[in-house]
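Run: sequence + pyridoxal-5'-phosphate -> complex structure.
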Amino acid sequence: MSTTTPRTAPVHAPQTGFPVVDGCLQVGGIPLTRLAQRVGSTPFYAYDRRLVTQRVQHLRAHLPAAVELHYSVKANPMPALVQHLAGLVDGLDVASGGELAVALDTGMAPQRISFAGPGKSEAELRQAVAAGICVHAESEREIRVLARLGEELGIAPQLVLRINPDFELKGSGMRMGGGAKQFGIDAEDAPRLLALAAQLELEVLGFHIFSGSQSLKADAIVEAQAQTVELALRLADAGKDPVRMLNIGGGFGIPYFPGEAPLDLAPIGAGLESLLPRVRAALPQAQLSIELGRYLVGEAGVYVARVIDRKVSRGQVFLVTDGGLHHHLAASGNFGQVIRKNYPVAIGNRMGAGDTEPVSVVGPLCTPLDLLADRMELARAEVGDLVVVFQSGAYGLTASPGGFLGHPDAREVLV
Ligand SMILES: *Cc1c(COP(=O)(O)O)cnc(C)c1O
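>> structure
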């Protein structure tokens, strides 16, 4: 006997941010076909500034006002976008000397810019001390170099210790804390390095504790935030300086794949609210902050490529576009995914068309890895149509191997 269970294919979370007018997607209020002409060539990334602004407002509406919001520049370092965000958030977090330059150009106050990342070079640390930004020291070496540079430059370095916690954010897409890691100072080693900093006459302003990234589970984030605060309270007892800055990380995810739902901010806001009295009592001078990258910009961006060929191979339709993994590694499934899943993809100038077919969207690179959509049901497309990859505002162009196969760069616009 055989039974058949009806199966409904899981669908992508709806992309409601970009309106559709007369079957054409609008980005920043401009029809995609017109935007493509304005940009002048495909492929390109387009970021919608209104959606970024709305996302910040959405966060502010749910998170306690006492918690500062920082933007993690590596998610998308496009200068115009960072400039836009600088006017909306309370701080910018950078992870290289190059990002530091972009952050400083926005005019954000230096003490509101922080610099984390393993392996900061002496040149980068010198830039940071000279700029007066806050360095998140991640090793004994960095602490010693900062002390020496402080003396050399006659400037007291602003520093926070980045701690590798003894727990991790459950269910996060990328683990960046807990266990053995190249990031931060192991929590159990922090007392020794706090003593070293004191001996070197460095003032430690506080702690940065980042436990993970890309989580869609509010309860896991709430739990990690509570553990982070507990850890900070223990570390504070080991240091001599009052804690003035406490960056408890981020980890807020966005839905990329079929079946994933947007993160519910309400429990996270409530969780943070419940932690505040304890922080205020134990660390009265501490300014609490969270740092978010993809959550702020990921859903505000699309990648757009043009169909340059339409082929049928043994019954399977392939749309070959001028864009691919060299601009958008993540959408091809090669940026950290274990099992490849399709990003949300559509034919931007044929939205809602009734005539659909299963197709694979591939790029021009001579490798089977260059796949933007694997057998998805899309509007029937022709040469010249515009393929859109949603959820592309973070870890897109700068997280892709642009030099691979020598095709032209993608442009970027903020509209
Ligand atoms: C990359 C990074 C972030 C941002 O992660 P998202 O998943 O983009 O929010 C935040 N903090 C640190 C320390 C990072 O390295």
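>> summary
The mean pLDDT is 95. Residues 329 and 399 are 7 Å apart (CA to CA).
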